[in-house]
Backbone:
């Protein structure tokens, strides 16, 4: 793996090409106190928008990204955006999130590394990257920064807040924290409170980064090219990637095919599935920051809509708006039963809840792959929500 | 984690108390050529036995251990054996593997670290541990060393060869390689050829060890206490441990309980499930060798009864004896469908095949936990096999 040229972080940093990013600066007159006790000031949020806000301000849709996503939901590769938008097939004229009808917004999360303030950002107190001094953030903290973006854009109430995985966690928090600012919710392949198994997989990924001597306790930003915590971050991604897909698809796609023929065995000889994992590890290292990975993974483990609110059911009782849950048949990381748990809590309080299950063998990542099914469910939901509001 | 006192390897080494171990020395007049092309000489196999071989030599049962198991199937903690036997509840007078009736044998596998020649053993050419020079071994190589033990003990034909997980891989190879030396097989929670997902989980565990700077390319045996590849081996175990258990059991047992209260968040604060993983990681480091882990994990990935034999079906057509497959309802690592694949291949050739499914929520490790169900199936199988032979 040729990582010798790589800078210590794959973060977007001030001075890099902004691409489609726009920036909102949170009020600098008072510090932003985080749920976990940390304090930040001078927070910048990077976001992107597609389409236009209508005169009534009624057509705005917020998309919340997953662990390693960013604001680049749609759009091609260009300076500032090394990859195609992660839901490119869903956003545009005539697409499910039809930009002729809807104003689509996505903000990079707090603690992230693609333009919003995170551990690779300069600490205003020192001018140096925060590194190990960046505080732990929560899903609720992320949502609060998104509220600032909504205010900045003049959006009083989202037609829908939509997101998968960590994005779905933000969706649920929007419904609980700001029920008056949403007209519907679409949590996809997510959970009301991270389970022990989800925490366990998160924890081993974080340990992989910590095990990398180049992580240096989180203060690696001045490391020379090739000496960042690339191997640790890549390994964290490789572990996660297994859980994002499925046994079936791995068997169909890779089986027992090898990279080099098996005449004579060697310890580091690879099967094709290992090359696939390497590829995904290396790809992430190019565009992500190890400290952000640690923070966002921890935020997911800390995710519990019930914390400090008397439990999950009591918290979800605050949700007032129609909710569409989307689950994935083959998702073993956020299985369908966890979507039904959300639905049961909502229905117990008379909230209209619908469930659509993506019939896919791809596992958790199907929400990023089976776009026809996801798009059909989203388009129908948005149309229904608009219609219901007209009545 | 207090690993400061730990030697660089948890391997049993010559000079350590033998405990219940006996030793067989493979013929030293010719080198042992491994399937993958490596060569070893002066191989020692550590084994344990329970009960006595009957006059007809017809009551011998071979138990094959899993990745981190060893020959200590039964028996308490004593010098030389830091843990209770891994199937202690199944072996003894009146137990499923009734030592009043059966002669039970288990040998530590080739490449292991509990008495059989492995990477921590002295290389006869240098007197120093093999380390990185130890060749890759295969499941077939392990079985060939077990044949030497059978010869040494005067066992012409095993009443049954029994084993779970990697042990089950050995069981299948016994049936394919030495059909005339077995009277029945009991492969448990295993697979005919490692799948891409199993390889993927194996690969990330090996990467964790390689990422540990204390692994030193495999040559760490002279490292001072506390400076062995403990963190890497522990992380490999932690990853595996998640796959050995189940979402259900983790939720029931740990839920979202924390080790320290959540007033204020910190990145390395642990949930109880993380403490559990740490515990299992640390426990393994005390009694295992990182290089052995690499080798045996690779042997499992290389496992394919069909290699060089025209495929899995053609290979399993060599099996001639009644086979009992045991699967586990909640096993996501070696799921029941993989047991049925073995059965279908055997039945296609007219081999009597039975399937028993352990009704357990514990996941893959249920074969080490739900001993009542496993024991009942084994006892019935052994009695049936004896009866069938009398007819």
Residues:
């Amino acid at each position: 793996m040729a990582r010798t040229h790589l800078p210590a972080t794959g973060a977007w940093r001030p001075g890099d090409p902004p691409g489609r990013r726009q920036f909102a600066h949170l009020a600098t007159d008072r510090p932003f106190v985080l749920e976990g006790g940390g304090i930040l000031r001078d927070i910048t949020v990077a976001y992107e928008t597609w389409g236009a806000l209508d005169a009534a301000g009624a057509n705005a849709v917020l998309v919340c990204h997953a662990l390693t996503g960013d604001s680049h939901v749609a759009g091609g590769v260009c300076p500032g955006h090394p990859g195609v938008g992660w839901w490119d097939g869903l956003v545009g004229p005539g697409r499910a999130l039809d930009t002729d009808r809807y104003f689509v917004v996505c903000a990079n999360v707090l603690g992230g590394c693609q333009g919003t303030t995170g551990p690779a950002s300069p600490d205003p107190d020192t001018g140096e990257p925060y590194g190990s001094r960046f505080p732990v953030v929560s899903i609720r903290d992320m949502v609060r920064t998104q509220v600032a973006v909504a205010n900045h854009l003049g959006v009083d109430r989202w037609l829908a807040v939509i997101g998968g995985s960590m994005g779905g966690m933000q969706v649920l928090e929007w419904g609980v924290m700001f029920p008056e600012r949403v007209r519907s919710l679409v949590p996809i392949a997510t959970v009301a409170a991270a389970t022990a198994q989800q925490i366990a997989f998160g924890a081993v990924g974080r340990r992989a980064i910590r095990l990398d001597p180049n992580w240096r306790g989180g203060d690696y930003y001045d490391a020379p090219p090739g000496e960042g915590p690339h191997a640790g971050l890549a390994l964290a991604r490789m572990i996660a990637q297994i859980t994002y897909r499925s046994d079936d698809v791995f068997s169909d796609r890779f089986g027992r095919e090898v990279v080099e023929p098996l005449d004579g065995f060697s310890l580091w000889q690879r099967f094709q599935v290992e090359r696939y994992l390497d590829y995904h590890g290396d790809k992430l290292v190019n565009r992500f920051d190890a400290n952000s990975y640690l923070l966002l993974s921890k935020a997911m483990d800390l995710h519990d809509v019930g914390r400090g609110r008397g439990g999950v059911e009591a918290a979800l009782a605050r949700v007032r708006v129609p909710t569409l849950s989307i689950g994935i048949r083959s998702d073993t990381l956020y299985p369908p039963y966890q979507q039904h748990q959300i639905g049961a809590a909502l229905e117990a309080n008379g909230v209209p809840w619908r469930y659509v299950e993506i019939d896919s063998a791809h596992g958790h990542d199907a929400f990023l792959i089976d776009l026809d099914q996801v798009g059909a469910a989203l388009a129908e939901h948005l149309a229904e929500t608009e219609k219901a509001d007209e009545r």
Remarks:
- DSSP finds eleven helices and twelve strands in chain A.
- The mean pLDDT of chain A is 96.
- Chain A touches chain B through 58 residues (CB under 8 Å).
- The first strand of chain A starts at residue 22 and ends at 25.
